[in-house]
Structures are given as structure tokens and as C-alpha cells.
């Protein structure tokens, strides 16, 4: 009973997050300029991170938490580097 | 999946659904808005309240089923809520810089022009400048 509730709500949540990733990837592919693509990549990272947290709840192990943490850190570093590249034309000055 | 109480399953399921729906709404807004400066507002719905709901669900599930308080998801929450404004502000400034450098009509040319336009639109009478 309770595991059924948890199973189905987690499944629906993961499908919704997958749709969110599809929308972000659409903007990343179609975006007219470079800043739109970077914004799409950032939203894509966040949706993937939340999806891994939900995978961790479903499996019942906390290994996925570290994966989500690494994805969050790498998303931040990547977005900052790309924005700085747009601003200055180089990443490390 | 081990046996867990029903109330915990309902709360965790609701929180994860709320977080997923908010993130989906943010990404749909990202895909559908017209200009970049409207688009940059939308995905923060997923990084603020979507992350809060999903990570709260994870904290609740592991705290009750693991028989101990598991709060290391708070690290992700703090990190995401600190870094998102930084990245969005850097990205918006970069986009503003690029639009101004190319002279696009969507942004005012400089901060002084923006102030003059705002003042000209006001009802307050401006001192007439010498011709």
C-alpha cells in the first residue's frame, strides 16, 4: 500500500522532471543566441540533479546524493565559466 | 523498497510531485517566453521551490526510514540557493553587455539613457534645458 503510493508518485515526478529536461534541451538546441543556450544548460543541470535525488529515494540508498551534489557543483562552475566567457571572451584572465 | 508508514509515503509523494511540477513549469516558461530577459526568470522556480520540495522529501524519507536524522541534503539546498543568484546575475550582465555592444533595441544604450527615459516618462515636470 504505502510502497505503491511512493512508487507511483515517484514515477510520475520523474516523468515530469524528464519533460522539464526535454523543455530545457529544446531551448538549448533552438535558442537564438549563446546566452539562451547557457540558460537552458543550467535548467537542464538542475532538473537532472532533482531527478537523481528522486532516484535515490526510489532505490533507498544515499549514494545518489553524492552524485546530485557533484552535478550541482559542476553545473555552477560550468555556468559561471560560460557566462564569464561571454562577458570577456576568455575564462581565466 | 522496505515497509514505511502510509503518512510518510503520502507526504514524500506529495512533496516530490510538487517539486517536479514546479520545475516543469519553470522549464516550460524557459521554452516559451519571447525574449532572453523574460526567460531568465523562469528556471529559478525550479532552483528555489522545486529544489526545496524535492530535497525536503528526501530528508523526510531518509530520516524516518533510516531511524536517524539525515540532513545532508541541506548541503545541496544551501549550495543551490547561494549559487543560483550568482550565476543568473553573471549571465544577465553578460547578455546585457553583448546586447549593448551590438546596439540592439531591446535594451537601453547605457544606464544614463535608462535614467533619462524613466525621468521623461514621469509626471514630474522637468526643468527645461537651454536650447
What does this protein look like?
The complex is a heterodimer of chains A (93) and B (131). Chain A has three helices and no strands. With 93 residues, chain A is mainly alpha-helical. Chain A has one domain: Helix Hairpins (Orthogonal Bundle), CATH 1.10.287. The model of chain A has no long low-confidence stretch (mean pLDDT 89). Chain B has 131 residues and is mostly helical. Chain B has one domain. Chain B is elongated and about 65 Å long. The C terminus of chain B is likely disordered. The chains are: A mainly alpha (93), B mainly alpha (131). Chains A and B meet through helix 1, helix 2 and helix 3 of A and helix 1, helix 3 and helix 4 of B.
Short description:
The complex is a heterodimer of chains A (93) and B (131). Chain A has 93 residues and is mostly helical. Chain A has one domain: Helix Hairpins (Orthogonal Bundle), CATH 1.10.287.
**Binned strand content of chain B:** under 5%
Pair with the most extensive interface?
A-B, 52 and 56 residues
Q: Please tally the helical runs of chain A, counting DSSP H or I stretches of 4 or more residues.
A: 3
Computed structural class of chain B: mainly alpha
Q: Fraction of residues of chain B in helices? A: over 70%
Number of strands of chain B: 0
What share of residues of chain A is helical?
over 70%
Total discrete domains of chain A:
1
User: Low-confidence parts of chain A, pLDDT < 50 over ≥5 residues?
Assistant: none
H/E series of chain A? HHH
Rg of Cα set of chain A: 16 Å
Report the mean per-residue pLDDT of chain A as an integer: 89
Uncertain stretches of 5 or more adjacent residues of chain B: 123-131
Radius of gyration of chain B: 23 Å
Subcellular location (chain A): Cell membrane
Transmembrane segments (chain A): 6-26, 38-57, 63-87
Membrane topology (chain A): Multi-pass membrane protein
GO molecular function, one term (chain A): sodium:proton antiporter activity
Amino acid at each position: 500500500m504505502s510502497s505503491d503510493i511512493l512508487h507511483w508518485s515517484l514515477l510520475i515526478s520523474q516523468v515530469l522532471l524528464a519533460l522539464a529536461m526535454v523543455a530545457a534541451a529544446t531551448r538549448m538546441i533552438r535558442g537564438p543566441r549563446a546566452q539562451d543556450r547557457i540558460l537552458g544548460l543550467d535548467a537542464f543541470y538542475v532538473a537532472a540533479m532533482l531527478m537523481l535525488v528522486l532516484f535515490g529515494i526510489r532505490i533507498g540508498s544515499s549514494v545518489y546524493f553524492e552524485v546530485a551534489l557533484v552535478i550541482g557543483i559542476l553545473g555552477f562552475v560550468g555556468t559561471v565559466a560560460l557566462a564569464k566567457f561571454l562577458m570577456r571572451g576568455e575564462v581565466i584572465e | 523498497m522496505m515497509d514505511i508508514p502510509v503518512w510518510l509515503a503520502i507526504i514524500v509523494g506529495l512533496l516530490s510531485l510538487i517539486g517536479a511540477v514546479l520545475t516543469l513549469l519553470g522549464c516550460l516558461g524557459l521554452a516559451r517566453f519571447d525574449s532572453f530577459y523574460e526567460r531568465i526568470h523562469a528556471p529559478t522556480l525550479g532552483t528555489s521551490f522545486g529544489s526545496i520540495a524535492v530535497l525536503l522529501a528526501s530528508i523526510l524519507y531518509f530520516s524516518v526510514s533510516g531511524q536517524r536524522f539525515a540532513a545532508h541534503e541541506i548541503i545541496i539546498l544551501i549550495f543551490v540557493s547561494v549559487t543560483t543568484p550568482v550565476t543568473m546575475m553573471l549571465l544577465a550582465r553578460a547578455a546585457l553587455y553583448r546586447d549593448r555592444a551590438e546596439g540592439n533595441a531591446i535594451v537601453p544604450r547605457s544606464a544614463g539613457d535608462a535614467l533619462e527615459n524613466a525621468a521623461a516618462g514621469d509626471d514630474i515636470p522637468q526643468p527645461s534645458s537651454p536650447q
